[in-house]
Amino acid sequence: xxxxxxxxxxxxxxxxxxxxxxxxxxxxxxxxxxxxxxxxxxxxxxxxxxxxxxxxxxxxxxxxxxxxxxxxxxxxxxxxxxxxxxxxxxxxxxxxxxxxxxxxxxxxxxxxxxxxxxxxxxxxxxxxxxxxxxxxxxxxxxxxxxxxxxxxxxxxxxxxxxxxxxxxxxxxxxxxxxxxxxxxxxxxxxxxxxxxxxxxxxxxxxxxxxxxxxxxxxxxxxxxxxxxxxxxxxxxxxxxxxxxx
Length: 245
Ligand SMILES: Nc1nc2c(ncn2[C@@H]2O[C@H](COP(=O)(O)OP(=O)(O)OP(=O)(O)O)[C@@H](O)[C@H]2O)c(=O)[nH]1
Ligand SMILES: C=C(OP(=O)(O)O)C(=O)O
Hints:
Its EC number is 2.7.7.105. 35% of the residues lie in helices and 14% in strands.
């Protein structure tokens, strides 16, 4: 069951894979207050669109995560009321950023909250800025991760991290921020070396990243808003009835 009392997302035309992944994961997704978020996007998007894009990214990320067959529930750590309301409506559980001590403290708090209720939970931290995220690609990443105590996926730029996992009974030990790929590798986490999971790697920090995410095919919130950013190509995810990759 999800923490909101609903059953895990059913396998459907957009999410199912032939063999169901073995482990079901609790995802912990950190989200800054929108007024403070995505500052590196301001030069490309402008100050008015920046917080709205941050919300759109989070909505598309969480919707895709909840549609993933390998995901049991999604906890978002945020103090943002607007985002909290919209993400709750999608089916996420919101946890306040009570430590207010930065990204890694927020993630540790989210994991503690999950494991207070289910001490044996397998957990994974996932960034909230993955607007092209595809449920099937996330399922492949999590399936790979389930073979290791801790595992991580490098971001599209090759320097950061978009996902860090910890199996049941294993501490997450998040080391996000800046060049975290090296940090997570040095911490003993196994790097997830999979091709064809670009949507899980494509975080959006800059205008160039937004262009790349739109080219991959962003979720509906980002596709709609991205079309208003000057110089961005407009990429939208295939609609229902379109064969999924
Ligand atoms: N809850 C919480 N989430 C955070 C915090 N800092 C960063 N995040 C989230 O962590 C993820 C990765 O952060 P960044 O890619 O650096 O995003 P950002 O800080 O909004 O972007 P910039 O302002 O451009 O640095 C995003 O989902 C952020 O919203 C924090 O202090 N608390
Ligand atoms: C948070 C990270 O990086 P960025 O701020 O560049 O997204 C990270 O990759 O750990």
